[in-house]
Design a protein that fits this description.
Elements lengths: L5 E8 L5 E9 L12 H16 L1 H5 L3 E6 L1 H5 L11 E5 L7 H13 L2 E7 L3 H7 L8 E5 L5 H13 L3 E5 L4 H10 L3 E3 L16 H14 L4 H9 L2 H14 L9 H8 L1 H13 L12 H20 L4 H13 L2 H5 L3 H4 L7 H9 L2 H14 L3 H11 L3 H15 L2
Parallel strand pairs: 2-3, 3-4, 4-5, 5-6, 6-7, 7-8
Antiparallel strand pairs: 1-2, 1-8
């Protein structure tokens, strides 16, 4: 049986909902729901090799930090000594036995400039006493909202603030939990709560957004220049914005006045990126699209689905374009803050796409299930779905890497 090896990336956000860091996770044990790996040193070494050689740290995390899990063996073996301490946060696992050797290892890493985090901290006397020797060197403590009560989450905030240690709430999966932890004084938040906001019943997608989605779908199907020009001519507001964008960016002395000339000057790829920015540049987001975790996530999952579709059915451009659009629309409820059921009638979807989005059925639905599983690091579901789809672990790894490369470019 082929070993399933993949790199997962989970966002860590600040109090304003902007990306602060990513936790990087390596998994190679699809038969275990705890994703236990044969060698933790080997696993982390493979994460770092994947990041540094295959993807590139800049593409994977941008200007953010990367949290990497550290066992006792990793700390004592000096595995991270050659890494850039400005990029990596060393995350000490909850089962590490703290003794003189571990304390000295942490002191060495701190002297090199690394930041230190404690993972999966349970706020009780046993954990406090066990990790107390490390507190002078720790920058972040990660508290799981599932394993700690609301009362303990609040007590921990006060306890660690006195020590000058920042608090990070893990497994924050909805907006209500985020607000609760925010009110308690937490500094950072890990989870996909940004994709599950409070929805407003009855709200629909606006006409401009629907037109942008239609154009993006067209672009993913590799249209001719004439077809793209014809579509833009039918959407005068978007066309006018494109001309303004081109003329404000162009270093030409002569003004660009035709849509055809604008498309040729900008290029198909840049038109697509511009449309994505238009779609996500909404006042209610309160930030630039590139700093939005929702924008980063939807870019990644849309390309991931499209790349998977290309692996499954390489000659079917229509299927691949639909896969990209399903990935994009799967987060549209979070963008518009309205249920998908009220959005989809105005979006460029057919029955197959709607079934995938609402029920996770059909081939497109399976692709979406796989994207969900990878983001949540659900190794059992991943193995089951790729078996049903008939793709290999190698193909999955390629699709994940390809989507990181594309989305972060």
């Amino acid at each position: 049986m082929e070993t399933l090896a993949y790199l997962a990336r989970q966002p860590i956000l600040d109090r304003d909902g902007k990306i602060f860091a990513y936790e990087l996770l390596f998994r190679d044990s699809p038969t275990s729901d705890t994703a236990v790996i044969a060698s933790d040193v080997l696993a982390t070494a493979q994460v770092l090799e994947n990041v540094l050689n295959n993807i590139g740290i800049q593409r994977l995390i941008g200007n953010n930090k990367a949290f990497v899990n550290c066992s006792r063996n990793m700390l004592l073996d000096n595995l991270f000594g050659l890494l850039n301490p400005k990029c990596f946060v060393l995350e000490v696992l909850e089962d590490v036995e703290v003794d003189e050797s571990v304390v000295k290892a942490i002191q060495r890493y701190k002297a090199l400039g690394f930041e230190i985090a404690l993972d999966d901290f349970i706020f009780n006397e046993e954990f406090i006493q066990r990790f107390k020797p490390l507190f002078p060197y720790v920058n972040y403590v990660k508290m799981d909202v599932v394993d700690n009560s609301i009362e303990d989450m609040t007590k921990a905030a006060g306890f660690f603030k006195v020590l000058g240690i920042k608090l990070l709430a893990e497994k924050v999966e909805d907006e209500a939990t985020f607000k609760r932890c925010q009110d308690a004084g937490y500094d950072y938040f890990q989870g996909f709560f940004f994709a599950k906001p409070e929805l407003v019943t009855g709200r629909k997608i606006d006409a401009t957004s629907a037109a942008i989605l239609q154009l993006i779908l067209l672009l993913r199907s590799r249209p001719t220049l004439e077809a793209l020009c014809d579509n833009l001519d039918k959407n005068q507001e978007i066309a006018a914005n494109l001309l303004r964008f081109v003329n404000s960016s162009s270093d030409k002395h002569s003004k660009i006045e035709s849509i055809r000339e604008a498309i040729v000057w900008v290029g198909m790829r840049n038109i697509h990126e511009w449309l994505m920015l238009m779609l996500y540049a909404r006042p209610e987001m309160g930030m630039t699209p590139q700093s939005s975790p929702l924008f980063q996530n939807v870019n990644h999952r849309a390309k991931f689905l499209e790349t998977l579709a290309r692996e499954i059915d390489p000659e079917n451009d229509d299927f691949c374009a639909k896969a990209f659009m399903v990935g994009l629309l799967s987060r549209m409820d979070a963008l518009v803050r309205a249920p998908l059921e009220t959005i989809l009638p105005d979006a460029p979807t057919d029955d197959e796409m709607q079934d995938a989005l609402l029920n996770r059925t059909g081939r497109l639905g399976q692709l979406l299930q796989l994207a969900d599983a990878v983001e949540l690091d659900d190794s059992l579901s991943i193995q089951s779905i790729i078996t049903e789809l008939g793709i290999t672990a190698t193909q999955l790894k390629f699709c994940i890497t390809e989507s990181y490369n594309w989305a972060e470019n």
